[in-house]
Write a structure and sequence with these properties.
- With 485 residues, the chain is mostly helical.
- It folds into four domains: 174 residues, Rossmann fold (3-Layer(aba) Sandwich); 62 residues, Helicase, Ruva Protein, domain 3; 117 residues, Zinc Finger, Delta Prime, domain 3, CATH 1.20.272.10; 81 residues, no CATH class.
- The protein has a five-stranded parallel β-sheet, with helices on one face.
- Helix 6 links the parallel strand 3 and strand 4.
- The radius of gyration is 30 Å and the shape is elongated.
- The structure holds zinc ion.
- The site of zinc ion has 8 residues, from helix 4.
Length: 485
């Protein structure tokens, strides 16, 4: 018999959320956990089942679902021993699936952390199961138990009666005492790949007879961040929101995401230094319901992705990336230089931190964009170096009055790894690196560099930045300069 999930195709009278309706009932239906399924299958086939299992993984990856499947694997009476393919129709299977089997006891340690709770639960350990083959104890969020509760559990875990199985689950494996861990067979559940999630959503849509744009599904899969449950909840909402086909635009609205095309546009205008246009774009996205912090996060993701595409061009070919983005992304990645990309990343990351703390996130995000736009035409440290090299005497201090930092340059250099250069390379630009300079000369070079109008502009753009040392770059990144922080 292979009728897993018998009521899959018929809509019952009461609406069931997709995450429940499509909760996997067998290992075969479990998504993105191949390694775990293989090990567990081997254990079942070779009849080497431990008496305690520990499932770990981030929230929503299917720990309790796997626990319930295992409970059915252990207890299905369609065969005379635990079977990899529980029938799904015997009374045991049905009762377990409906969470009402008297021998399968579940406890959420997050809400019941005390020793009395655990005592109450394991009090029945010594009694034989009423109908099932095994009495199964599923304890979720096991790391929340108090020390005393752990100790109480430990005694039973050490030598449980043969008719008892423990299935423990946790999101924070490091908080589980070693003594407990060592008595369990441990399984790590992986965050589900967004490509796998997209395919899964697709198949659910087919079964639900719902049409959806592939991009809409990819958006939800990405937002779910590895959690099947979250992905299905998003799909649930999307079905409610959509009139007919699920469209990417609606999903974006629903998730508070900015339009990807607009994120690309914003990135483009800002990196071209077109501040006004960029701010208008941001305002428009904000008005359309995009959360400014998410816009910033999107820019950060985009920067990361572009940098990846630059290093690994195949990264643009993943199926979650729509065709239009592939083309534009490759173009961008080619055009933007690595130092600019890494600088953008650093500025966005810092900006995101600031914006999270800011009383007005929109304002804070605007400031980040302005800073980015102004930095866009700033030279990379390597370019600065070249310009500074061209000079024979200190730059006109009057031309950079806004900075006036030459006096407060740190005596202890080490604030900024701007770029360094030695006396020799100032006079001869071709000269390779690596010559040590004595302190006096270095100081002089630093002061001159700081007064240079371009450097001064950088210093003004980044409050707190200082030129600490001047040295030519030798790294293989070519044009790449040091970082200005
Ligand atoms: Zn069964």
């Amino acid at each position: 018999m292979g009728t897993n999930g018998q009521d899959r195709t018929t809509n019952g009278p009461a609406y069931r959320v997709l995450a429940r309706k499509y909760r996997p009932a067998t290992f075969a239906e479990l998504i993105g956990q191949d390694a775990l399924v293989r090990t567990l299958s081997n254990a079942v086939e070779n009849e080497r089942l431990a008496h305690a299992f520990l499932f770990t993984g981030v929230r929503g990856v299917g720990k309790t679902t796997t626990a319930r499947i295992l409970a059915r694997v252990l207890n299905c009476v369609a065969e005379s021993s635990p079977t990899l393919t529980p029938c799904g129709s015997c009374p045991e299977c049905v009762a377990i699936m409906e969470d009402r089997h008297s021998d399968v006891l579940e406890m959420d340690a997050a809400s019941r952390t005390g020793i009395d709770d655990i005592r109450e639960l394991i009090d029945g350990v010594r009694y034989r199961p009423s109908s099932a083959r095994f009495k199964v104890y599923i304890i979720d969020e096991i790391h929340m138990l108090s020390i005393k509760a752990f100790n109480a559990l430990l005694k039973t875990l050490e030598e449980p009666p043969p008719h008892v199985k423990f299935i423990l689950a946790t999101t924070e494996i490091r908080k589980v005492p070693v003594t407990v861990m060592s008595r369990c067979q441990r399984f790590d559940l992986r965050r589900v790949d967004s490509e796998v999630l997209t395919t899964h959503l697709q198949s659910v849509c087919v079964r639900e007879d719902v049409a959806a744009e592939p991009e809409a599904l990819a958006l939800m899969a990405r937002a779910a961040d590895g959690s099947v449950r979250d992905a299905l909840s998003f799909l649930d909402q999307a079905i409610v929101h959509a009139e007919g086909t699920i469209r990417a635009t609606r999903v974006r609205e629903m998730l508070g995401l900015a339009d990807r095309v607009e994120v690309f546009d914003l990135f483009e205008t800002i990196s071209a230094g077109r501040v006004k246009e960029g701010l208008e774009l941001l305002r428009r996205q904000y008005a359309a319901g995009a959360d400014p912090l998410i816009v910033l996060q999107d820019l950060l993701d985009l920067t990361h992705w572009l940098t990846r595409v630059k290093v690994v061009p195949e990264a643009a070919n993943e199926i979650t990336v729509p065709e239009s983005e592939r083309i534009r992304g490759r173009e961008f990645a080619e055009k933007l230089r690595m130092p600019v990309l890494t600088r953008t990343w650093q500025m966005l990351l810092k900006g995101l931190d600031e914006a999270r703390l800011a009383p007005d996130p929109l304002g804070a995000v605007e400031m980040v964009l302005i800073r980015l736009a102004f930095a866009s035409d700033l030279p990379t440290p390597a370019e600065l170096l070249r310009e500074v090299r061209g000079e024979t005497r200190p730059a006109n201090a009057a031309s950079a009055p806004t900075v006036g930092r030459s006096g407060d340059l740190p005596a202890d250099s080490g604030e900024v790894g701007a770029s360094t250069m030695d006396q020799g390379s100032i006079s001869s630009a071709e000269r390779p690196v690596g010559v040590n300079v004595d302190e006096g000369v270095q100081d002089d070079a630093v002061q001159r560099a700081a007064r240079h109008p371009r450097v001064a502009a950088v210093l003004a753009a980044f409050p707190g930045a200082k030129v600490a040392a001047v040295r030519p770059r030798t790294e293989s990144c070519g044009e790449n300069g040091g970082s200005l922080t």
